[in-house]
Amino acid sequence: MEKHMYNAGLIGNCAYLAHINKNTNVTWLCWPRFDSTFVFGSLLDKEKGGEFSILPEGDCETEQYYLENTNVLCTKVSCDDGEYLITDFAPRFRQYDRYFKPLMLIRKIEPLEGLPKIRVKCEPVCDYGRRKQKARRGSNHIDYAGCEETMRLTTNIPLSYIIDEQYFQLNEAKYLLLSYGDPLEAPLVSTAETFLRNTAEYWRLWIKHSSIAGYFQPYVIRSALALKIHQYEDTGAIIAASTTSLPEHPGSTRNWDYRYCWLRDTYYVLTSLNHIGHFEEMERYFNYVSDISISEGDEFRYQPLYGITGKKKLVEEIMDHLDGYLGDKPVRVGNQAYEHIQNDIYGQVLISLLPLYTDHRFIFSERKDSVRWIESVLNKIERTIDEKDAGIWEFRNMANIHCYSNLFQWAGCNAAEKMALTIGNKDLEEKAKALKERAAAHIESCYDPVRKVYTNAAGSPHLDASTLQLIMMNYLDPASQKAKDHLAALEKELKTPNGLFYRYLHADDFGKPKTTFLICAFWYVEALACVGRLDDAMREFENLMKYCNHLLLFSEDVDEETGSMWGNFPQAYSHVGLMNAAYRIAIKLDRPVFL
């Protein structure tokens, strides 16, 4: 079976994200928000998804790379007539004491060698490819209408060449500036060059202000840059991925919409941001989670995931009119998992907001509603602590007392206990302690003394990579024999010969998993470092680096046999896993953290 790779790069500015394939096409772009319809979506349907490509006449070879330490993407195209460079970026920089992040895609095309003949094709669509936008010629621009807002392509390329899809000779730098809603009311060339310079400077300064340890730095830097643009800055939400319905494995029907924010991943995301010292992003995410907590109030439970604005109902719809990625259906918009019972999330919320109470780098006046808020989340744990749930992997028709769910309830109660100590509330402290003991009892009900391992759920024989967190969360003392035995049992069953890691191997609602889940492999690396197997951790980490694409971007899933990339891409949480694993190893190695 041929190795499958996602041959695309990602650009974004915390208002939108776009994928540019090595063939120069914008294969994925949702406007005006991360969770909006695509205006370019050939990733899911080559006919109905529209196109925005800059191709030469005849065959060509391409090379793609980022400007160092930026989210500015370059694609070098070589053909018989010569060579040219496309620079793609989403403008982002500081202006008027705030961030300028317009819904604007800028493409600069410059000849490098010879006189290449190129063709620009721009055909945006709307309503998930149900309608093509209508092109209307202006003086120096093309308006695309027929959807919610008009889009405008401002360019110094003759408009007829674009409308007629005609080849022309590239003998000087050309610019394409596609905007949504508000058109450009400024000089094209000087504006594009200023925006490019300011955007590159912004990203390089952002990295300079990051504290990144001296261990596999280029990979951590790229992961940090990728994670950053997965944050929807307007609300602070961080999405799992920019895409929907890229299958976990061909024919698996595990095609999910990941353009939402999962509370279950909050702890890992905030930990990774903390490691690189980016508190502004942390505070924005704190505010998003806090707003959800306040809006839910005394409601019985949280949802596993929310929309980027905190929207609750994310009704799942099948887009039958779309072919799907490489013909793999279904294409889903929305995610039914918002209806699931997932009881680890209360603990995730508590431990995620703990730094506001205990980390003196945050200036946090005691909230008047601290007692009510902590008590409200503890009450949610109390109501659900003995309840079966769908677990971290969101089984659709299976419920159990999951070890992982109770681990995070335990950790959440531990955090609540520290918060109660900080604000001096004895009653809350005692309540947190009592609930922590109940959660621990459920965790222990998952222990198999014969195999010396914690199973995925009470009364279940199955193992699950999520229980690696028993070690990382210090429920098990990493230096203890019990932790080492647990890790050894998990790696014996779930680790693959090529160093990848399955989430689990038992059948779920869709059969047995056929691909490995990349973040689990990074958890495994962290667990190895925790128990003192540092050489093993470094070897396994280095081995995982080969599963990225040409731009150091990682997918959600990897096929063990072929090394193929599957699942939504790039997967923010794969990059979070990489960042946290690299940090764990660097700390053990006592490598300096470069500020």
Automatic annotation (TrEMBL):
Record keywords: Coiled coil, Hydrolase
Coiled-coil residue windows: 418-445
GO MF term set: hydrolase activity
Domain of life from the UniProt record: Bacteria
Record-linked SUPFAM superfamilies: Six-hairpin glycosidases (SSF48208)
The protein, known as: Glycoside hydrolase family 15 protein
Residue span(s) of domain GH15-like: 218-583
Lineage: Bacteria, Pseudomonadati, Bacteroidota, Sphingobacteriia, Sphingobacteriales
Domain Trehalase-like N-terminal: 9-155
A matching Pfam family: Glyco_hydro_15
